[in-house]
Amino acid sequence: MVRYIVKRLFQGLPLLLVISITLFLLMMNIGDPIATMGGRTITRQSDRERLTRQLGLDKPISVQYLYWLIGNDWTKVDSDGDGIPDNYGTRHGILRGDFGTSLVTRKPVTELIGERIPNTLLLMVASEVVTVFFALLFGIYSALRQYSVMDNIMTALLFIAYSMPIFFVSLMSMYIFAVLFKKWGLPYLPTVGMFDPQVGKTPWQIFIHMILPVFSLSVTYFAAYSRYIRSTMLEVLSQDYVRTARSKGLPRRQVVYIHALKNAALPIVTVIGLDLPFLLGGAVVTERIFAWPGMGRLFLDHVSRSDLPVVMGILMLVATAVVVFQIITDIIYAWLDPRIRFD
Amino acid sequence: MNHMKSVLFLMVVAMLLLSACGGGSAATSVPEQPGDATEVPATDAPASEKKVVTFSWTQEFTSLSPLYSTGWFTAVTQQFWNCWAWNYDENNEPYPYLVTEMPSFENGGISEDGLTITLHLRDDIKWSDNEPITSEDFRFSWAMNIDPKNIVSSTYPEDLVTSIDTPDAQTVVLHFDTPSVAWQSLFTGIVPAHILQPVYDAEGTLDNAEWNNNPSVGCGPYNFAEWESGSYARFVRNDNYFDAPAKIDEIFIRFVPDDTAQTTALVAGDADLGAFIPYSEVPRLKEAGVEIMTQPSGFNEGIFLQVSEDFSHPAMLDVNVRKAVAMSIDFDSFNQDVNLGLVKTPGSFWDALPYYNDPPVEPYPYDPEGAKALLDAAGWVDSNEDGTRDKDGVEFIIQHGATTREVRQELQAVAQQQLADVGIELEILNFDADLFFATYADAGPTYSGELDLQEWSDTPSGFPDPDIYYWLCSEVPSDDNPSGTNSFYICDEELDALIQEQASQLDPAERQETVSKINQIFHDKVYWIGAWQDPDVWAVSSRLTGVKFSGVTPFFNITEWDIK
Amino acid sequence: MTSALLQVTDLQTRFHTPEGIVHAVNGISFHINEGETVAIVGESGCGKSVSMMSLLKLIPTPPGEISSGTAIYRGTDLLQKSEREMEDIRGKDIAMIFQDPMTSLNPVLTLGRQLTESMREHLGFTKEQAEERAVQMLEQVGIPDARRRINEYPHQFSGGMRQRVMIAMALSCAPSLLIADEPTTALDVTIQAQIVELVARIRESLHMAIIWITHDLGVVAGMADRVIVMYAGFIVEEADVNDLYDSPGHPYTLALLAALPRIDRRRDHHLKSIAGSPPNLLVAPHGCPFAPRCEFVIEKCRQENPPLIQIEKNHSSACWVDVKTGAPR
Amino acid sequence: MNNQTPTLSELADDLITPPLTLWQLGWLRFRRHKMALFGGVILILLFIFAFGGAFLYTEKYANFNDTSQRLLAPSAEHPFGTDSIGRDILARTIYGGQISLFIGLVSVIIETILGIIIGALAGYYGGVIDAILMRITEAMLNIPTIFLLIVMAKFFGGNVPEIEIAGRVFSGSVIVIIVIIGATSWMYLARIVRAEFLSLKENEFILAARATGTSNSQIIFYHILPNTVAPIIVSSTLSVANAILAEAYISFLGLGVMPPTATWGNMLESSAKYLDSAPWLWFFPGMLILLTVLSINFIGDGMRDALDPRSRTI
User: Fold this and answer.
1) Is the pLDDT of residue C326 over 80?
2) Minimal-distance CA residue of chain D relative to C58
3) In chain A, what are the domain boundaries?
4) Which class does domain A109-336 fall in?
5) Cis preceding linkage at D260, omega within 30
6) Nearest by CB: C105 against A146, A241, A254
7) What is the ipTM of this complex?
8) B10/chain C closest Cα distance in angstroms
9) Partners of residue D3 in chain C, C-beta under 8 Å
């Protein structure tokens, strides 16, 4: 088991290396980070030349990548612009846990990301929970009542939900639950931010600010998951062992929730497990619309200023999470499915 | 083991609920985390006793340190907790703040040759930890700025100062190689030497100083309290402030990412102050009783014309054709309709500086017929009747590039149609700001020679000083000068000489004369076409009183603000 | 004659599929007595499994539909019972084993769990009691080392072993009727014999009635008391096992027997397969469904479906023709 | 709808159905799929709207602005209202629809070509080629698509001149968007094709073809590929919906198709600002995107049930 995990991790490393090189190459051409450093005015020539040198942006791309990967504290760099390397660099490289420093804010990338991860996870885990909970409810319900009127209505509704672009759901829900409700004198929901500063960051505030973004995020995923769970359940319910269980006179509850769901759980757990790491990246569009201070917005803010360390940091974090979660999902799957053993 | 597994089996759902609890507990633990919950206004003593105002910023500041800050919002926020050598009032006139008087030729603060400037500091000024602010802090701030080990955002104009003497704690003597008008932009924020010198000594740089993002010691009317990235920052009254204390107890800054969110908050009364209000939001705000205040800050939205033998469309080399272009676009109607009549069409790059825009330059009037006549006279006629004028087989097709900001795209669309009406085809292009302003070295679009018209909002570089530099011949980019900013490739000898001349004219009257000449050249040769004035637009809640703004140091009288 | 344990009358089952209505079972009637073994024989798709599943109401509805009929089991009609009531019958009174032991056991539950759950459900056993009984049952069906293996999963057993487990599971509540749906079809020939023998042995000890569904007349020769032959959802012949083998009364039975290898035949005797293919059940039956494949076909066969009529004592057949003479009846 | 009709073999034992070709059977099944037919009708109507509408309004009218007529609510003259510089939204949704549908279709062609080539090479040759290609596929799948789209949009966003196709001028960003959507979406298809190739290449008829010395390219294109068409068609159909959504997302974030070329996506870009003051700005383009995606999903689902009944839906 341990050997399997180690083996898988080592298989993941070259993959991450390839990803990092590819992304780094892309980063080189996404814009000029110094262009917007002057604030509202154009960066002066002298500042531009100095910053380019100080930030190491004048180095060849291979060197920049190397510094990003393993740091530059082993070599001398030229900090004063006289062309002679004078001081040892201060970067440790991503392999040693140093994601670098944001070009824009001059804060360590790990700190920037660290500040946002809890917010993103709060939003995303909440919507994942809502999604999976209702998807299980709906998916199992309509699988058990295949072809019933309710099943047909739900299938059609799920299709519409599944086809909804997230921004459209967001705008519609904002319009209805905030704008129209307010107009009608109903209790209305806040649309942006994480809490109302007048009230403070109370759990209740966070909760009501989460409702609309969680709703918007959940609609599409809920539809996809429901359809998946429904078809998985249908497939499992048509299996011989379910017929066996029924022929034994087991109560329906036991047939569905023990015999069928336990088998259906395998693919469902897999899908959820593989989706989880993507939650880290947050929902770019949703976070933007609802002004949620998460990773997605961090990404947008910094990609628009070509802040390579932050953008790379977020992307590599997500990519690594995907690799790790694949392994975790495999392990959980094997643990759940007695037919699979590592040894 | 087996039993455990079947439990887990049953708990596919429960597993997820577990993570829900994880999320939930994260939510509940959040308030305890940053600062104490007791500091959050609502949970504190009766809110009525404490005066808290909420400002909404559409952009988060980057670093708080004056050395590292970039961007307008950071500079503005410094007004709360940091201090400038001199402040500017609502007329954008400077007045002494940390110094006893503004240096001038008359009071001897500026030497006859303009190479030495002496600042006399007040003796009652102090940091929020009660340490006095001395000439050493000034010298240290300057030295840190130009130290190559610090990756500061800009070393201009500090790099014009060759050395600083501090004969005593209240005297700062600045030495220059050449007289420079840019001295007025020095000491826009200072850093505490007694806090940061040890950091610099230990780390060899201030880049990673904790103070940058968590300035425990400041010198403004408020102290920094906390900052949560992406959400909010808080400032509380500095009880050790050396001037009259502020009336409002606490400033809460909320980061909202877009204008809609900001408007919503302002209308709902969730925010008391908003900055950078787009004109499209103004009616809603006014309707809700929010006051809109505009303050000239030097900026004007304008079209920069590229005039280059090498790159430009041949037609654009003809000054009459450029005039025709200016006359073909109806900026007044655009400002009336889209900008809701809140701003006028500026005729001059110095529109916000009446002293230098004298005699005032008027924009070219919207006159499509006149434009057609000019174009006809210049030989640009539609000889092949395809709807677009041409000359010597060259069609009159020019490019207009801008960033992706919506109102610019709207102007582009309007201009495209209006230019088409006079027979000029306008291709419009948009880029993200970091791509649009990329350098010649990075093959940025403005330097590619493709864009005959380049649009953005800009200001004289040392506002309220009228200095400009883009149009200098030395700024024309080339392989040898890859960072040059003259993306218009305009090297006009007369203009170049005048720009150089004004930069070292420390006498305002002489300066006014030079700038007026430049102003007139800009107009006559049509190097820049004003689109709309771009003042700071503030939305102020009606419950705030005593509010004044400056276009340079917006919160110069923040201590006098109060809540009704 | 003892009273019937189960009396089925006019059972009709249809499926509503997108292609149309499938007439899977078309009004069959039969009975089974206590302790009796009845074999139901027919080709794949003749409706024998569906009719049995209909009795236990295991047909997925929709699309399935039991459109008419009664099934009187010990005085009550199974087909009128609610799902809840059926749960009490299934496994306890009437148990069923299925064709493919590889897929009929739940792969993610231990054998112990699967063996004990019906006992705990129907007999109110505690977990310990049920496990004790399960071990006994497993030993009875010939699983060695049962006490240890009860914690294993189905994939750790061979096909024959799994079918033994299925049998143990079905018999754990001592049902009075066991429906065995081709329990040996998926197994090797030697294993087949063992399973048949096992069921026969257990039948004796439990005094249990058995309905044995198969497409292979050979398998049932040794153990069935009576044989019912089905074709296209109809019962075409019903007889004591010896009568059927000695004097089949329906051309289809005749054809089935001809397709059977027999030890008393000459070695060079060619096994005959039945020409043609079973009818399309989508088409509502009209005339005798076997007519298109029948050697004895007469015009009447195409017009009218023959009813099941007694031709001898305890021997009925649905054919317009007397196969012995070839003359119309 | 996911018409999970149990096959007859699941119900009764085995039932002989009249022999039909895959396509005949597919069409039969598809026709029965009411939602798929409904989706087809909607999609045809949308095409008529986008391309037929061009006969009602000229492109010049779609771009015609009059700032004095801005933000007008829907009326007889402007059925969908006007936008922030007084352009007619109905006309813009017509021309925007053409571009959105065009982007959806063309980027899927690119996606399909990439997916087939990569999947076929990996599946057919196996070994090192398979390992490398699948590593790349995995690498692409490891980054959320929206991030890839943003980064690539910025990568290619540096210099995009206008282009002229069939007498109409487009922003070059149309091509950029098509390319980046195609380049970030082929991975699932490549996996499907690879799996099909893996299973088919060991078939007798392929082994026979190999034995008779048929060239690899012939085997790939004439022997194996035709047998994988069904899953490819199903996957590609559904991809069109995703491509249209991708365009909308990326345009919504301001990185998509640049003005003056309208698309449903970039019409939405700044409309959030007018959430309550001019809801018609976002309602109509949003609704059209929803309808298009919905109808394509219906059709795709019908096709999947018809052509590829084994596959599981998500």
Assistant:
1) no
2) D11
3) 34-102, 109-336
4) mainly alpha
5) yes
6) A241
7) 0.81
8) 12
9) 18
